[in-house]
Design brief:
Blueprint: H1 2-20, E1 34-36, H2 51-57, E2 66-69, E3 80-82, H3 85-90, E4 102-105, E5 110-115, E6 127-132, H4 139-142, H5 153-176
Parallel strand pairs: 1-2
Antiparallel strand pairs: 2-4, 3-5, 5-6
Helix pairs in contact: 1-5
Copper (II) ion binds near residues 77, 121 and 126.
Organism: Malus domestica
InterPro entries: Cupredoxin, Phytocyanin-like, Phytocyanin_dom
GO molecular function, one term: electron transfer activity
Amino acid sequence: MGGRKDMNMMIACLVVMAVACPSLLNLKGATAVEYVVGDSLGWTVPPNTSFYSDWAASKTFQIGDTVVFNWTETWEHNVGEVASKEEYDNCSDPGIVLGPGVSTELKSTGSRFFICTVGNHCEQGQKVIITVGSPTTTSSLLAPPPSSSHASSLTTTTLGSFVGLISALVAVASFVA
Ligand SMILES: *[C@@H]1O[C@H](CO)[C@@H](O)[C@H](O)[C@H]1NC(C)=O
Ligand SMILES: *[C@@H]1O[C@H](CO)[C@@H](O)[C@H](O)[C@H]1NC(C)=O
Ligand SMILES: *[C@@H]1O[C@H](CO)[C@@H](O)[C@H](O)[C@H]1NC(C)=O
Ligand SMILES: [Cu+2]
């Protein structure tokens, strides 16, 4: 009987595919994204002090993404990274500052704090916190995302039903076989 065999084969293939390539089913985390901080405004003194926090809140940063600080006149701004929220709030001296076009890869979860140290630009809101939520690797299928993560409920739901689907397929496969 070819029919049953074909079905077994199909289920086996689906299971192998899903286990081998979870990213196929995780549309959000599939590709690294390059974010230009501030989008078309770039990195400058913003129109108001909530501009960059609003900008960051509108994105979902993932491990492997990069953020780029872009501005036109080299001397007008700079960008430096400080170590903590306190230093960020204080506009503390980052020690090292870099020029336009600087990009940095987001390599782990947690928050990173960037400021401009020219004049009082930082005090005027030229600062941004980039927070990476839960990683979208295979391990997130097994471990629940950290509670502090910014992972959307959509992602969580997708992963949840995905795990359910696999269990169902495995159950069906072993029943049919
Ligand atoms: C800050 O400026 C942006 C861009 O002009 C604007 O869209 C936003 O509503 C402003 N936010 C506040 C709190 O004024
Ligand atoms: C970033 O800066 C470069 C060089 O100034 C410019 O060509 C490019 O359009 C900028 N991109 C954005 C998104 O601002
Ligand atoms: C922040 O500024 C306050 C007041 O100047 C100072 O007491 C504190 O040590 C600063 N904290 C950091 C982390 O720089
Ligand atoms: Cu500046």
